[in-house]
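Could you help me review a protein record that somebody else here produced? This is what I was given.
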Amino acid sequence: MMKIAVTTLLIASASAFAPAPASKLTTSLQVSEVELGVTEPLGVYDPLGWLATQPESFERRRAVERKHGRIAMAAVVGNIVHNNHIVFDGYLSPSNDLKFSDVPTGIDGYKAIPTAGVAQILAFFALVELAWMPASKYDGDYGVGWCGKNIADPEEKTRKLNVELNNGRAAMLGIIGNMVGECITGQTMYEQYAGNHISPFGDGQGVF
């Protein structure tokens, strides 16, 4: 029954990928932002027709998508690393006798961080968002290049920008899926893998 429901949902949502009018919005990257991230044969994903009715808002929405994708990619990598118990040596908070290895994996890990540590994290986020990589810079090009290297070839740059957008989308789904899975099963990623609990359909433990 679950498989039928999922299949039906996928078929029903396919129509949302119908191509929409693609205006040639460009940025300082000298590429069409509308064409970036378009995956054939699905075309431009614009089920609500915002490209036609709210073209002035597209640049901001693309900037939000790009930044959220970057954050999600970092989150997925960090989640995988921490769930495999790869941590810094030493203390996260010497005054609280808290080592990095004492922070539990999974969503609840942040609860172990002292209030001063959370404040430092938020302050760093504010620095990045307001000064280093300001949200007002919609093109997402902060002058650091690709791994420190500027890409001169426009075709290669377009390909890497497409890769970034699509990987970011996958990462957003991946990290939210991981959090939902952890909340439903009560197990962290590591615990699910260690217990061979990786399939909602065939692991012998019911649906979840």
User: Anything to note?
Assistant: The first strand starts at residue 91 and ends at 93. The two ends are 14 Å apart (CA to CA). Confidence is low (pLDDT under 50) at residues 1-24. The first helix runs from residue 2 to 14.
